[in-house]
Amino acid sequence: MSLRKRKGIAVVVSGFSGTGKGTLMRELMARYDNYSLSVSMTTRAPRKGEEHGRDYFFVTDEEFEELIASGGLLEHAGYCGHYYGTPKAFVEEKLEEGLDVILEIETQGALQIKKRYPEALLLFVMPPSIEELKHRLVGRGTETEEVIRERILQARDEAQGIEYYDSVIINDDLDVCVKELHDVIEAAHLAPFRNMEFIEEIKEQLYRE
Ligand code: ADP
Ligand code: 5GP
After folding, report:
1. Ligand sitting nearest the alpha carbon of 175
2. pTM (2 decimals)?
3. Domain 10-38+98-208 has CATH 3.40.50.300
4. Bridge partner residues of 12 (DSSP)
5. Is pLDDT at 154 greater than 80 in this prediction?
6. Ligand 2 atom closest to 158 (CA)
7. Which of 29, 142, 145, 190 is 20 to 30 Å apart from 151, CA to CA?
8. Interval between CA 75 and ligand 1 midpoint (Å)
9. 44 burial via Cβ count (<10 Å: 0-12, 13-18, 19+)
10. Domain range annotation of the chain
């Protein structure tokens, strides 16, 4: 029996709006049972089909600002005129249970998470091309032309932070991408810096010989 204990990793998944992050996360959760998805808080209005507590906690500016003030958020950022943030308690609880917690958040928030959890894994999901990205945004049919344009422009800023991520994964074929995401996360569990307790224990045993 191995002495290695599997610790939960805070896995940040970012990518331009319309890349397919939400779709990918749903598939990842359906196929594997070692993940827990963090539900963010936002001040933007729900899209058709979105549910409070499942897709987001939809709150007012006042409620959001209260939570910032009371230290209830792990990170927060402004995106296209709205607040988005990660409730702290859920993430801490799931990591403690040894689950990998997925935070589907944008780049400013991702860097705040990296500061707070240096062991976090930062993954950036890319569309195969910007043409395909526009096609997906239009095909989703949830935003006006104006909002789509705003999101494409926002992507320019987000593209500036990609070099701080650990991996870039392309969402071309959905099935392939889900498997790649899972494989990258599994490989991250093997990194020596995420296994220091085990390594120290083995070293101690060596010195007792
Ligand atoms: P995001 O959460 O990144 O904004 P969504 O998950 O809402 O993106 O996906 C945007 C649109 O693209 C949706 O209509 C979705 O069905 C579609 N989509 C997602 N992944 C793929 C893929 N691999 N190939 C084709 N269409 C995709
Ligand atoms: P959308 O409005 O399309 O659901 O999300 C817009 C952007 O906000 C996406 O890039 C998404 O990843 C990001 N986002 C969602 N939740 C959070 C969060 O809790 N914190 C941060 N920083 N970004 C988030």
Report:
1. 1
2. 0.95
3. yes
4. 103, 122
5. yes
6. 10
7. 29
8. 25
9. middle
10. 10-38+98-208
